[in-house]
Amino acid sequence: MGVMYDYFSAPSDEVAAEAIADGPLQRFPTVETKSLDPAVVMGQLEGLLTGRSWDDVREDPQWAQGLAIEHDGEVLVLAVTDGLRDALAAAGDLDEVAVRWAGIEELDGFEPAVLAETLRDLKALAVEAVKNGEQLYCWACV
């Protein structure tokens, strides 16, 4: 089945952590994905969008910061960096970004057109989060 990664916006870490039990779908604006983990895959997306090095992205204290963990790590709520949120909100040509993103090892076999659609959804989520003074998070479920 794979891992589900739902990206959502919330006003604070504490409020986001409350999504651990049932997921964010009924409580928060959400983008559902599979295989787009908040650490490596989204970290590399942040690098593509911002020009930050992989090391710089990983050193961000928000990078995949665990906020809530249940069921021996099978369900998690993780922070998404403000750098990625802001870069998504400001992103221009998402089709071009999707082509470059599809080139990373972890997304081998993904179609750029499908990734571009996901990027459009993530951008809309990020734009609203910035507008509302919220942060982005990821609910992961194995």
Topology diagram in text:
Blueprint: E1 4-10, H1 13-17, E2 30-34, H2 40-50, H3 54-59, E3 66-70, E4 75-79, H4 82-90, H5 94-102, H6 112-132, E5 135-141
The number of distinct structural domains comes to 1
Q: How do the SSEs run, as a string of H and E?
A: EHEHHEEHHHE
Q: Supply the number of helical segments.
A: 6
**Share of residues in helices:** 40-55%
Number of strands: 5
Provide the structure class. alpha+beta
Mean pLDDT, as a whole number?
Answer: 95
N-to-C CA distance = 8 Å
The share of residues in extended strands comes to 15-25%
Supply Rg. 14 Å
Strands of the widest sheet, in order across it, are 2-1-5-4-3
Low-confidence stretches: none
Overall geometry comes to globular
Q: How many strands, what sense, and barrel or not for the largest sheet?
A: 5 strands, antiparallel
Would you write up a description of this structure?
It is a single chain. The chain has helices at residues 13-17, 40-50, 54-59, 82-90, 94-102, 112-132, and strands at residues 4-10, 30-34, 66-70, 75-79, 135-141. The protein is of the alpha+beta class and 142 residues long. Strands 2-1-5-4-3 form a 5-stranded antiparallel β-sheet.
